[in-house]
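EI: anyone free to look at a 92-residue chain?
SC: sure, send it
EI:
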Amino acid sequence: MEKAYKMGTDNNYRLKKKPLGRSDKKFDIKFHPLAGIFPMMNAEEFEGLKSDIETHGLLEPIWTYNGKIIDGRNRYLACQKLGIKPKFKIEP
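SC: here you go
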């Protein structure tokens, strides 16, 4: 029987936490505090997203509000890793 692991309870499975307010030198966009209500993807999901964006491009734009990302943090980070300039939908 396979051993099931819960995130955060197994020492062999750890996600590196990074501050939500980070920005990128290329795009210089920060995360809106409200974006934190949704969890970030785990490493496996994030790699799948990166692969999908690399194959098909960014299909869903990243939403910003008051100059900060409110929806699409994972898409934004995937674009950063791939060196792709993301598409944004800007709300006032």
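EI: Residues 17-25 have pLDDT under 50 and may be disordered.
SC: 👍
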